[in-house]
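INTERNAL AUDIT FORM
Audit reference: QA-55
Scope: verify that the stored structure record matches its stored sequence.
Auditor: D.O.
Record contents follow.
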Amino acid sequence: MNIRQLECFQEVARTLNFTKAAQNLFLSQTVVTNHIRHLEESVGFSVFERSKKAVSLTENGALLLKEAQKVLESAASCQNLAQQLKTGLAGKIRLAYIIGIEQCILTRIIGDFYQKHPDIQLELSRDNWANMQNMLLRNEVDGIFISRPELTDCCETMLLQSFPLLAAVSAKHPIAEETSVTYLRLCQETNIIFDAVTKKTIMPDLDNSLLRVSINSGAMVIPKFVVNYSSCYEKYIRYLPLTDIDISFDVCFAYSKSNQNRSLQLFADNTLRLLSAEAEERE
């Protein structure tokens, strides 16, 4: 028993006419008749009752037809999935991202892609800068949302958005009463526990760092999107522009040049189109 035999069986059962079934399947009547004969030989009983005037399903044939239709539907679904996997329209993309960007650009990018390609599974994880680069090198993820990576030789990197840097200080700190601050003064007056200027630490344990700032146990230099992430600290932390530096925090999407995941390329292309459309709207 094979798929072709089941297709002929289903079509003859639908039309109850070997000639019409053959025409609909673009086969000769002899070929259809042979497929039905081989099917009956393999199952050990007749699936049709034939007379000079009519063709009808046997009782066993009617029962077999129900299962045959399930097999054909499953085969069609399998074939469709195979085609989607081949073209990247189905599959899985493993993504990792730095803490905080889910509050801004990440949600838009992933949401837009999922609405257009619901058959592609998105596997998401959140980690720090150093760990994500290692995960990409070990092929544990397909792509990472990160500040500019160091893996430029082996990675494709797409700039998504640039954010200004802000000083985050406790509301109890004297600097908090001002409208801006210089980076030099901030370094002189308090311990910087997270510094996006030097990038000595990129997205560490952000919650603990914000807690330390809120109790005046240090300051941070952060990209602006972290303000949205830390809204629960709005009573305890003040954010001030830095007036003596012209550095932005760039959020990028990076993936290995050797990655063969077709869905990943679809994701990258969709991200580019989304960013271009948003840029045109702003203009």
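Auditor finding: record pair retrieved intact. The beta strands are 48-50, 55-57, 91-97, 120-126, 143-147, 155-170, 192-195, 219-223, 237-241, 248-256.
Action required: none
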